[in-house]
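Sample 1 of the test manifest.
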Amino acid sequence: MAQATIGDTGDSTSVSEFDRDTALTPRGDGVYEANLSSGWTIFGAVNGGFLAALLGRALGDALPHPDPYSLTAHYLSASRPGPAVIRTQTIRTGRTLSVGQASLYQFDEDGNEVERLRALATYGDLGTLPDDVRTTAKPPNLPPYERCLSRRDGDAPLGTEFEGRLDLRLDPATCGWAVGSPSGLGEMRGWFGLADGRDADPLSLLLAVDALPPTALELGLKGWVPTIELTTHIRCRPAPGPLRVAMTTRNLAGGLMEVDAEIWDSADRLAAQARQLARPKMG
Amino acid sequence: MAQATIGDTGDSTSVSEFDRDTALTPRGDGVYEANLSSGWTIFGAVNGGFLAALLGRALGDALPHPDPYSLTAHYLSASRPGPAVIRTQTIRTGRTLSVGQASLYQFDEDGNEVERLRALATYGDLGTLPDDVRTTAKPPNLPPYERCLSRRDGDAPLGTEFEGRLDLRLDPATCGWAVGSPSGLGEMRGWFGLADGRDADPLSLLLAVDALPPTALELGLKGWVPTIELTTHIRCRPAPGPLRVAMTTRNLAGGLMEVDAEIWDSADRLAAQARQLARPKMG
C-alpha cells in the first residue's frame, strides 16, 4: 500500500532529486521515517547541509509554522546511506514563532538506534514578514555564471557523488587549490543550483550553505572537514534563479575553524546567513 | 545544612558577582537549581547572554569536558528574577568532544514549570588545543580604554541594573544614539569587563557576546530587541585584561536582524565569535 509522504508530490516523473530524497513518511507523534540516498554523500558520509534540510522538512511538518528562521544542528556521528528515523519535539508554539527539536537516528548492527545529529530550530512564516530592508551587506563580487568553473571544466572536481546533484559554478579566484596553488585565503565563492533545475526554497538553502568545496582547500588543507555545529538563518524565500554563495573562514586556530556562508538570491536579497564550527584534518 | 554548589567558592567575601549569581546547586541526574538575580536584568528580563552562561555552567558540570566550543540557545519566554531549575541531558560523549542539551525552567503561579530557553552545545577542553593560529581576522579598530565612554560619563547610559555589573567602555563612534544622532550603521564597539574586576573565562564570554547596548540603537530603533536565537563559539581561554567587543548588524530585513559579535582578548586572539537572530521592536 502506498504511504503518504511529505515533500514528494507522488509523481515520480516530475519530482526533483532533492524533494524525492528528503521525502519523509510520518509515523505519528512527530516521528518520521527517511531513507538516506547515496547521492548526497561525500566520501561515504551524507552531507551535513542535506541532513539539516531533512530535519528542516520534518520540523516544518511537525510545527505550526512552515519556515526555518534559525536552525542549529550539532553533528554526533557520520550518517550513511540507508534507513533513518527522525524524532521531533514541539517545544513551544506562539502566534508568529514556534520552536522545535529534531534528531536523526540510524541503526547499528543489532538494530539499536544511533543518533547522528540533533537540531534546535525556531520557525515562522516568511510569507508574513514585512518588505522592509535596511541593509549594509553587499552581494559577493562574483564573475558571471558562464565565466565560473563547473566540475565539467575539469579544474575543480572533488569526485564525490554529491557534486552530481548540484549545479555549482565556482569563482576561478577561489579555485587555486584545484591546480595546486591555494590562495591561502579561506574563501570559496560560486553560483549554486540543483542539477535538475529545481528552484531554491528555504529547505534547499539549508543545503546550499554547506555545499561548496571546503574553504580549508584554499587554506592549503587537503583532508576532510567534519562539521561540529552548523547554524543557518533563513531570511526570505529566495527568488527563482541561481544563488550566489560566499563562504569565508577568517580564524583557523587551535585546530578549529569557523566557516561563514552568505547566500544571495537573484533579487539581490541576503536570503541566508550561516556559520559552522568545523575541525579540519590538519595536513 | 549548607548545600554544595558549583561555581561558588563558598567564601562570600571573595566570590565575584558573576560566579555568585551563576552558582548552581546540583540535584542529581543532571538537574541543577539556580536563583536568577535581579542584577542581570534589562527592564525586568534577565539578559540572554547571562542565561546562556548559566546553562553553560550546568553543561560544563554535567559533561565530561569543561569548555563550551559551540553553544546555541533558543529563547522561549522572558526569564525573571527568582528560582529556576536547569535540566541537562548528555547526548554523546567522545574522547575530545561531548554534546549536551540544557533547558532552564521557571514556575507559573500554580507551580508548573515554564521553559525559558533551551540550549544545545558541543564541549571540549580548550586547554588541549594546539597553539597554531592562521587567521586573517583583525581586531576591531577601537580607541584606547580611557578614551571610551562609560555609563558614568552620562553620554550613553541605558539605566538598567545590568549595566551596574559591567565595566563597559563604548567607542564614541558608536554612541551617536545616546545624543540623538545614531550613525545609521549597525555597529557597536567597546571594552568589556566585569564591574568587580573578575577575569574573563569561557563562561563570561558567553555573557560578553550579548552585553553591549543593542546595535539597533545605532540604526535609529529605540525599543527592546528580543533575541530569538544566540550561538557562540568559544575559541580559546581568554587572557586576563579587558576584552574588545565588536558587534555588527548588516541585514535588518523583514523585521528581523542578525547581530554578529567578535571578542578579542588582550593577547590579540579572537576568543569568541557569536551570532544572534533578533526581532527588534520597529519604531
